[in-house]
Automatic annotation (TrEMBL):
CDD domains: TM_PBP2 (cd06261). Residues 66-258 form the ABC transmembrane type-1 domain. This is Putrescine transport system permease protein. GO terms for biological process: transmembrane transport. It comes from Bradyrhizobium lablabi. One of its GO terms (cellular component) is plasma membrane. Keywords: Cell membrane, Membrane, Transmembrane, Transmembrane helix, Transport.
Amino acid sequence: MTTRAVNQLSRFNAVSLAAGFAFLYLPIVILVIYSFNASRLVTVWGGWSLHWYREFFNDRAMLEAAWMSFRVAATSATIATLLGTLAAIALSRGERFRGRTLFSGMLYAPLVMPEVITGLSLLLLFVAINAERGFWTVTIAHTTLTLCFVAVVVQSRLGSLDRSLEEAAMDLGCDPARAFVAVTLPLIVPAIAAGWMLAFTLSLDDLVIASFTTGPGSATLPIRIYSEVRLGVKPEINAICTLVIALIAVVIVVASLATKLSSARGESAAPL
């Protein structure tokens, strides 16, 4: 292949990449820019202003919905991380037990299950047991949704570790539990942290499942935003969405750094 052909191919790849990024992120960029719009009309530019951010912080209903979302996301992410990590350890470190395939399939089912079905099934469960819908029902629903994601992240990290490290610790006198805590756990902590952040982000963004399982006085921020948008998009909504985008971007960056740190530690701990 000639140099000219290579340059043309590279130019085509660059244009394709730019078009793909524009398709994905141009609407988000427009939303962020218009969150600083001074005009009350969303489609009319009136200059740069932080007015709508101040409006959000003065909107008590929105602040309460945001606080509810953060509480639900933090609680469900913590529970999902604990259960998902235990499930990943059972699948990666446990001997092949009877029903392992069924357990694995049930654990990963929410990954491909439509959220409408998950939300409806949880709603029917809460109605059947006469549970009052509110903070805890939404938290349980989000834990069900995010647990499998944590298990995937942690199990992939456990699968890449060298089992000889634990075996060496046991040869030096550690029992299996102590060897896991002293050797393996520090190596998978970044993966556990990444799983928690992923679960937190998924819970914070969820609308469908929360709409099935929430109750009066426990609306999350996505539900509140959706109810406001149905009556017309206000510039305040752009400001709220920009803040959420910024928060999620920070969480994703931290999760990516934690995953890279986990991989680097695993490589540095590998035997020569």
